[in-house]
Amino acid sequence: MKAKIHVTLKQGILDPQGKAIEHALDSLGFKQAANVRVGKYMELDLQEQDKAKAEAEVKSMCEKLLANTIIEEYRYELQS
Amino acid sequence: MNIGVVVFPGSNCDHDCRHVFHDVLGQDVTMIWHKETSLAGLDAVILPGGFSFGDYLRTGAIARFSPVMQAVKRYAAEGGMVLGICNGFQILLEAGLLPGAMLRNKSLHFICRETYVKVENAATPFTSACRSGQVLKIPIAHADGNYYTDPVTLAGLQANAQVVFRYCTADGHVIPEACPNGSLDNIAGIRNAEGNVLGMMPHPERCAEAMLGNEDGRLVLASMVEGLKNAKRSEAVV
Fold this sequence. Notes:
- The complex is a heterodimer.
- Helix content of chain A is 35%, strand content 29%.
- By secondary structure, chain A is an alpha+beta fold.
- Chain A has a single domain (2-79), classed as 2-Layer Sandwich (Mth169, Chain: A).
- The radius of gyration of chain A is 16 Å and the shape is elongated.
- The mean pLDDT of chain A is 95.
- Chain B is an alpha/beta fold.
- Chain B has a single domain, classed as Rossmann fold (3-Layer(aba) Sandwich).
- Chain B is built from five helices and eleven strands.
- Chain B has helices at residues 14-24, 67-77, 87-94, 151-159, 216-237; strands at residues 2-7, 28-33, 44-47, 81-85, 101-103, 111-119, 135-142, 146-148, 163-168, 187-191, 197-200.
- In chain B, strand 3, helix 2 (67-77) and strand 4 (81-85) form a beta-alpha-beta unit.
- Chain B is globular.
- The chains are: A alpha+beta, B alpha/beta.
- Chain A binds chain B through residues 9, 13-14, 16-17, 20, 40, 65-66, 68, 70-71, and chain B through 57-58, 61, 65, 94, 100-101, 103-108, 146, 148-150, 182.
């Protein structure tokens, strides 16, 4: 099973990289681009075949290491 | 005193700390590799600056799982004195020994320059040689020093005098313009509720001797040594 994990700063927390990209897009003429948020994408393979167990495992990984839940939120997809 | 300096892969201020405690302040120093599991016999532990584990994932996020960090947690829980400088502060945050987290600097730049910090609490074992409100000139060198915590935790830090250093102007005004990195409430250093763990982004070990033109950082490190000596003396009396 493959897990695809996205980690981004929580809404309401200043994202300086997102702001810089937003300004760059604006100066390139992409005037509509707003609220740019930068995040991390990770994928990993799991031996686990049971989806519920795999999900619990990935959630635990996110809580313990992959995201800092003081400032970040995460979401994931599982693919068999 | 025997001061332990922890060395993670990628630490680069470990020998500066060793130099100041040993050569300038005349203390014994033990370098502690991050695989160590015991801190027995140490009077204080320093988590130095640098780029532990290449700052991969988040600053301090990997280092917090080094075996030595379990020992640092026990050491701190038993009241041992722990100072985290720069990356060491980031590791203390990731390890949950201090509250909050670091965001990328507001400017997105890696900032390496002198800053002024105000001693907001001189009644700590890390600042006892300072006057309350004293302005210290201490350099910073980081890309992720933009301190963040939730409003409830911040209020707690303020109410318990856990904010030890704030960025300020040369004459001691704590204003947003004096904050180099966007840090919440101009926070440059905080301690835990018990008072034995301090994290600070500025580098006191880089300005602790006259030869370098600035001795302000010495006040912080010498406070620790004096505090430890006094504690030993009162133990001996008891």
